[in-house]
Amino acid sequence: MPVERINNNVYRIPVPLPNNPLRELNAYVIRGREQSLLIDTGFRLDACRRALREGLAELGIAREETVVLLTHMHADHAGLAPEFVAPGGGIMVSAADRVLLDKFSGDNRPAREGLNRMFIAAGFPPEELRTIARSNPALSLASVAPADYQQLHDGQVLTFGGHRLHCILVPGHTPGHMCLYLEEEGIMFTGDHVLFDISPNITAWEGVADSLGDYLNSLRRIRGYEVRLALPAHRKPGDMKARVDELVAHHDHRLAEVGRIIRESPGIDAYQVAGRMTWSIRSRDWSDFPLTQKWFAVGEALSHLDYLRVRGQIVRTRDDAGIDRYESA
Question: Which of 113, 109, 73, 67 has the alpha carbon at shortest distance from 90?
């Protein structure tokens, strides 16, 4: 697909994501005279690599003049960053997500074992986890080559191509997700914080008490900005304020659903909660769910359970088998 001109010297390069329901990544470029900014990159796959390389060539941008900024650490955004940043240059990412990149880059077995422990405590069958480890893009493609990561901070202002980008920390989808705001133009790069055709996955994170609460607070913060054009990392743009309201309402509905499930089945685990939640996936029932989607669903159930538990609405106890059980407070 050809490069799309969005505004002045702002462009979109569509990067395909093979065998992924997200379909493609919107990699954005702000072209400058001496340095150009590349926002997000794609998986470490040949199809992604080729599309990004061809898009930059079409814009006449060489690797030597490319600065890479990551909205967050997920592999479909960060995977190719070390290959496209200028030699000796740094990759900009939030401080919180830099920690996660360091943790999950390469074959970091302890990090993956810690992730597995969280899902086993959620009631995820170990045999299913072993199977999913061979096919889950969040695991098998999360490896990012070592690189020099430069920390971005909330409120920091960057200048590229005559544009001033305001960095806005919006934890939730990841602990250090960043949005980028071009105030003069009313343009915001929303990454995966606000998506318009699909709802961003909000999962539990080790060391984060309430990722869903963080996400909802971040949504309310971002709603206060005047945004003429919101540019998401996946699919099409849309009305920013209206979409924020829809996402808040969506999670309010989810929380009510999870609370009802626990009241009806006290002592249930997160895997079982996820199996009774409503999902927009074509499957006969929970047992027929694709394993990768089941993994994401359990992570999302955990974030909603954490939200209710932190607010004293439910309680969590661990049984003798090491499984966390939930019931109403």
Answer: 67
Of 258, 271, 262, nearest to 123 (Cα)? 271
> Are 71 and 173 a contacting pair, CB within 8 Å?
no
For residue range 184-214, list pLDDT tens digits in order: 999 999 999 999 999 999 999 989 999 999 9
What are the chain's domains?
A: 4-328 (3.60.15.10)
What is the rounded end-to-end Cα distance, in angstroms, of the chain? 53
Phi, psi for residue 151 in degrees, rounded to 5: -80, 130
Is the separation of the CB atoms in 167 and 180 below 8 Å? Answer: yes
> Strand, coil or helix: what is 168?
strand
Sheet strands (E) in 143-300: 149-152, 157-160, 163-169, 178-182, 187-191, 229-232
What pLDDT digit, counting tens, does each position of 24-39 carry?
A: 999 999 999 999 999 9
Question: Which backbone phi and psi does 220 adopt, to 5 degrees?
Answer: -65, -35
By the 10 Å C-beta count (0-12 exposed, 13-18 middle, 19+ buried), 146 is classed as exposed
Contact partners, residue 321, CB within 8 Å, separation at least 6: none
Amino acid at 243: R
Q: What pTM was computed for the model? A: 0.93
Q: How far apart are CA 21 and CA 118, in angstroms?
A: 25
How many other CB atoms sit within 10 Å of the CB of residue 181? 21
The number of C-alpha atoms within 13 Å of 310 and in the hemisphere containing its C-beta is 15
